[in-house]
Amino acid sequence: MKIRLVGLLLLLLPLLVLAGPLKPGHDAVASAQPYATQAGMQVMAEGGNAFDAAVAVSAALSVVEPYSSGIGGGGFWLLHDAKTGKDVMVDGREYAPAAATATMYQDKNGNVIEGASLNGPLSAGIPGEVAALAYINQHYGKLTFAQDLAPAIKLARDGFPLDPRFHGMLVSREDKLKQWPAAWKAFYPNGVVPPTGYILKQPDLANTLESIAKHGAAAFYTGTLAREMVDAVRANGGIWSLEDLRDYQIKLRTPLSGDYRGMKIITVAPPSSGGIVMLEALNILSGFDLTHDSELMRKHLIIEAMRFAFRDRAEYLGDPDFVQMPLKRLLSPYYAAGLRAAILPGKATPSNDLAPVTPEAPESQHTTSIAVMDKNGNLVGGTFTVNFRFGSGFMPPHTGVILNDEMDDFVSKPGVPNGFGLVGNSANEIAPHKRPLSSMMPTFLYTTRGLAILGTPGGSRIISMVLLGTLDYFNGGDAQSIVSLPRYHMQYLPDTVFYEPGAFTKDEITGLGNMGYRLEETRPYGNMQSITWDYKGDKVTAAADPRDVGTAQVK
Ligand code: DON
2-16, 218-232, 243-257, 404-418: which has the minimum mean pLDDT? Predict the structure, then answer.
């Protein structure tokens, strides 16, 4: 009898192994800042789950990386609840104030006023991060909001030593922040750029976070803090109202789900363009056997898939609550088959034949991404931002909160490129309470081998970075290789392939040049965070992008 039971178990063992364990048995965090990663690990050690940790990491980043993201900004958090098996997208993207209009950044001759959508309070959308974090804590967390926010409050109150990256940001943004006294005082306490190692304390931000911890999101969207923000915004040329803040709500959206040759992809839906563009590109690529192509041919096909998918971004995408988008068509395999057939073997398709050229997108690393997993298999991927470095630069006095310049993600005028060189049309024009189109895309990948969480900043380049990371995971990569991978990018317009040093070999550069590509080497870009879990051997790997100062921990 005993022998039979053992026999049965031995028979079932391979099946059990194949099915994979239900829980990773490890907590893991990857973020762009060591203090934020630590905040996440700390709340999980205190009994919190991955959702608590995501709240703690996000809040801590608003203190230690305020040039990238913060409670004056917004973003997307992708959640996987292990208990129900459900995925949900928390859309905490900013929306436009009610007084916003489609032509608000144009002069009376219809020309776009340079910098108007990028500087000062007129460039700020109504922030969504506080509402998103409160929602995640309330509906998914195990700890109180105050517990999740405690590490961030401590970092703001007691301070932390500036690293070279933060110092560099302050050097590069000195002129911008000098215009706004509260921001100047907060980040240049002695009237000069503080040196690396300086202990930066942010008492106003600590008070603001404390009040949110005590009274919830209402402390930010109504009451004294809301009035202080609205008064300061309006006194300095902005158009926020108390009602804009009071009426702000996160949106729960069904994530997009896609398939690439048997790998399941869960990613964000509009108002991010990231999911649609990547899935469209993957649909095109899924008809090729990339593993059997030469590296040169593989890169040619990936670049062309990026080109076609980015073209549709410019044409169709915007806030789903405002515009009708042909999403079914864009994601249909028949549509992808048509585009695939249009790819010329061994030859670049000139984008210039199809639309006017736009300037190059600037290099950028000022948004942030997190990956969190807990031992029970709850997952969070988040990408959130104040948009460009230190957002609008504007800080309402006494709040410690840097306001975003997310309004630049709208189309200021059809055909005129935004800060990332992206063009668009009426689908992404400004309207009251509309959300600007984003490229941010935290993503989950599932194969029979395991799963991956990945995401990165980088404006329009986010999409190509996540696409390359996705293909790397499909080919057997882990968190470390996903974040390290050399990157290349094509966004339809400009008709140029941007690539990091090492992304192409010498022969590939010659080969792609012969195919008609215009190539431009860039500085390293992106700041990807990733966690992978191999079911076999229960192996959890977390990694922060080696290009920057972030850290990852597994316990
Ligand atoms: O939502 C977007 O697509 C942009 N606001 C993201 C900005 C960004 O990634 C800047 N960083 N590097």
Answer: 2-16
**Centroid of chain to Cα 225:** 27
- In the chain, how long is the greatest CA-to-CA distance? 90
537: left (phi over 0), alpha (psi -120 to 50) or beta: left
In this predicted model, what pLDDT tens digit does every residue of 372-413 receive, in sequence order?
Answer: 999 999 999 999 999 999 999 999 999 999 999 999 999 999
From atom 4 of ligand 1, which residue's Cα is the shortest distance away? 459
Distance 375 CA to ligand 1 centre (A): 31
Looking at ligand 1, which residue's alpha carbon is closest to its atom 1?
Answer: 438
Is residue 299 a contact partner of residue 507, using CB atoms and an 8 Å limit?
A: no
Angle, alpha carbons 363-445-261 (nearest 5°):
105
Task: Return the amino acid letter for 422.
Answer: L
CA of 458 to the centre of ligand 1 (A): 6
DSSP state of 79: E
Q: What are phi and psi of 388, to 5 degrees?
A: -70, 170
Is 512 in contact with 504 (CB distance < 8 Å)? Answer: yes
DSSP helix/strand/coil, 74: strand
Cα 137 from Cα 123, distance rounded (Å): 29
Q: Give 293-297 contacts, CB < 8 A, sequence gap 24+.
A: 295/505, 295/508, 296/507, 296/508, 296/511, 296/512, 297/346
**419: three-class secondary structure by DSSP:** coil
Among protein residues, the one with the nearest Cα to ligand 1's atom 6 is 459
- Please list the active-site residues: 367
Distance 260 CA to ligand 1 centre (A): 26
- Looking at residue 282, what is its pLDDT? 98
If you take atom 8 of ligand 1, which residue's CA is the nearest one?
A: 459
pLDDT-derived band at 362, boundaries 50, 70, 90: very low
What's the CA gap between 193 and 172, in Å, rounded?
10
**Which residue ranges form the domains of the chain, and what is each CATH number?**
28-249+367-428 (no CATH), 253-362+440-540 (1.10.246.130)
CB atoms within 10 A of CB 350: 12
Torsion over CA: 425, 96, 65, 181 (sign):
positive
| Residues contacting ligand 1 via CB (< 6 Å) | 364-367, 385, 387, 406, 409, 438-440, 457-459, 462
pLDDT at 356 exceeding the cut of 50: no
> 462: CA distance to ligand 1 center in Å?
8
Of ligand 1's listed atoms, the one at least distance from the Cα of 439 is: 3
- Ligand 1 centroid from CA 434, angstroms: 17
- Among 65, 385, 404, the mutation site with the greatest number of ligand 1 atoms within 8 A of its Cβ is 385
| Cα–Cα distances in angstroms (integers) from residue 313 to residues 95, 279, 309, 439, 506, in the given order | 20, 12, 7, 10, 32
Ligand 1 probe mutation, 169, 420, 460, 487, most atoms within 8 A of CB: 420
Q: What mean pLDDT comes out for the span 94-122?
A: 97
> Which atom of ligand 1 is the closest one to the Cα of 93?
1
Pairing of strands 519-521, 368-373: unpaired
